[in-house]
Design brief:
There is one protein chain. With 281 residues, this protein is mostly beta strands. The protein has a five-stranded mixed beta sheet, with no helix packed on it. Strands 1-16-17-20 form a four-stranded antiparallel beta sheet, with no helix packed on it. A hairpin with a 6-residue loop joins strand 2 and strand 3. The longest helix is centred in the N-terminal third of the chain and has 15 residues.
Length: 281
């Protein structure tokens, strides 16, 4: 039996953000009230959720990337996302909204296709630049962690997914790469500089066996099962295959669906999506 689940790397990142707030200072860019909070910790996470330190980053090479590749942020409280940077004085952030009625089409795309096909399902809803420090400041010459307040950029819409891209501006040394709008900077580092986020308290786990597909719904804040969640299975061609409601244990079982590719669940104004073919939420 295969288990498909969402790994909560953002929860680990949230701990890092708290550390950043404790010892950092805030600096706002012109335009929207978006802050970059300079952290005193050099620890970060790679794309697999493994910890590494700033010693793994060459400070002579301008680098910027998101700390984690999580998919869900709790809808309550501030929506803070971490990124790391070295040898850049500024960071440009661009947010694209994937409309709720386009989610299944968006989930058909793999990571390579996303950068070129996203315009078919999403529109730019925010574009701003953060000041990380003056060019003569010492701290921007070291790998540092920053916090981005997303809720000051956009007001999350229930069911929508936000594709967030970041790139460095005003490098301390000359850069040499092919710059394209589809990659929002360097083609080679795009996956490290982009992330998809859904503001929701609802998360899903699916177990797929020979005889049944089981789906479990949980509240990300309390960790408790969510009963009464409406769950639907879809084929890759976006056709509804089955639907039902979770029981008191937050669980629902469907007969084996070999064609099932996507799971969509709702509970009140909370949404959750699960991509069975790529094992991602």
């Amino acid at each position: 039996m295969k288990t498909f689940r969402f790994f909560l790397t953002l929860l680990a990142a949230a701990g890092l953000f708290a550390a950043c707030q404790g010892g950092g200072s805030a600096k706002k860019a012109a335009g929207p009230a978006v802050s970059a909070v300079r952290g005193e910790t050099a620890m970060t996470l790679d794309n697999e959720g493994n910890a590494f330190t700033g010693e793994d980053i060459d400070p002579e090479v301008p680098t910027i990337r998101f700390i984690s590749k999580g998919s869900i942020l709790p809808s309550k409280g501030s929506l803070d996302l971490l990124f790391g940077s070295v040898s850049y004085a500024k960071a440009q952030v661009r947010v694209k909204k994937v409309f709720s009625n386009n989610i299944l089409q968006f989930m058909q795309l793999d990571s390579y296709e996303t950068r070129y096909e996203l315009y078919k399902v999403a529109s730019i809803v925010a574009d701003t630049t953060l000041v990380l420090g003056d060019k003569d400041a010492d701290h921007i010459r070291e790998w540092r962690t920053y916090g981005l307040s997303l809720d000051e950029l956009v007001k999350p819409e229930p069911g929508a997914i936000y594709h967030i891209e970041i790139r460095g501006r005003e490098p301390l040394v000359e850069e040499d790469f092919w710059d394209s709008d589809s990659s929002f900077g360097d083609y080679e580092t795009y996956e490290q500089r982009s992330v998809d986020l859904l503001a929701s308290n609802l998360v899903l786990i699916a177990k797929r066996g020979d005889n049944a597909t089981e789906v479990f719904a949980y509240d990300i804040l309390s960790g408790k099962p969510v009963s009464g969640a409406k769950v639907k299975l879809y084929s890759f061609a976006q056709q509804e295959l089955a639907k039902g409601t979770t029981n008191g244990e937050g669980q629902i079982s469907f007969p084996a669906q070999t064609d099932a590719s996507f799971v969509v669940a709702t509970s009140g104004n909370q949404y959750a999506y699960l991509d069975l073919k790529n094992e991602k939420a």
